[in-house]
């Protein structure tokens, strides 16, 4: 009996190891190196998933999501503890104003009027931050970190921009652009939740 239980346990472990994405080394997605870890607020985060944002047939950016622990559902991501990071690596030149408007449309599609009313000041600051960015060049990297006790901190190529946005609920509202019920790219959502990139 004990042998059969041990054998089943070993088999289950082996299946999990085979089926789970192995990201010990950087992933190559559309020529972009996606690192397996990231450090935010002194804590090492793990790559949860990654993929390409495509608009019609144009590849816009590679996105990667980093968390303290692996999550396979949107709700799990929203509820995850500790710091977080998502990165966008540009695959083409994009005007910052257009980028900001696309983000605002994604937030609107995936949140209620009550949620948006709650975060109206942060929504305004978020939109204005991108108006002031100018052009985002191909190869540029945008990072958006959740730092517990501080808030959402954004940077482009390592240079901070915009205000610190203090509410975790707002950070989750931003994540809903890609992980919500009406994601901006239905093929990117599974990748961010750990599906192997195509």
Automatic annotation (TrEMBL):
Cleaved signal peptide residues: 1-24
Keywords: Isomerase, Signal
Gene Ontology MF terms: intramolecular lyase activity
Ranges of residues in domain Chalcone isomerase: 28-194
Pfam families the UniProt entry points to: Chalcone_3
Signal recorded as keyword: yes
Superkingdom field: Bacteria
Protein name as it appears in the record: Chalcone isomerase family protein
């Amino acid at each position: 009996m004990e042998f059969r239980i041990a054998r089943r346990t070993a088999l289950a472990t082996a299946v999990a190891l085979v089926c789970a994405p192995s990201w010990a080394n950087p992933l190559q997605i559309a020529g972009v190196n996606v690192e397996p870890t990231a450090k935010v607020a002194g804590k090492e985060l793990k790559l949860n998933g990654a993929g390409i944002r495509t608009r019609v047939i144009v590849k816009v950016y590679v996105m990667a999501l980093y968390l303290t622990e692996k999550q396979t559902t949107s709700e799990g991501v929203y509820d995850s503890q500790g710091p977080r990071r998502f990165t966008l690596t540009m695959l083409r030149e994009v005007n910052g104003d257009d980028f900001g408007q696309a983000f605002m449309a994604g937030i609107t599609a995936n949140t209620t009027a009550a949620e948006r009313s709650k975060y109206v000041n942060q929504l305004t600051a978020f939109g204005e931050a991108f108006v002031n960015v100018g052009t985002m060049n191909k190869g540029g990297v945008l990072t958006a970190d959740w730092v517990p006790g501080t808030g959402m901190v954004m940077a482009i190529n390592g240079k901070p921009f915009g205000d610190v946005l203090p509410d975790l609920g707002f950070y989750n509202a931003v994540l809903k652009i890609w992980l919500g019920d009406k994601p901006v790219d239905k093929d990117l959502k599974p990748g961010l939740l750990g599906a192997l990139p195509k």
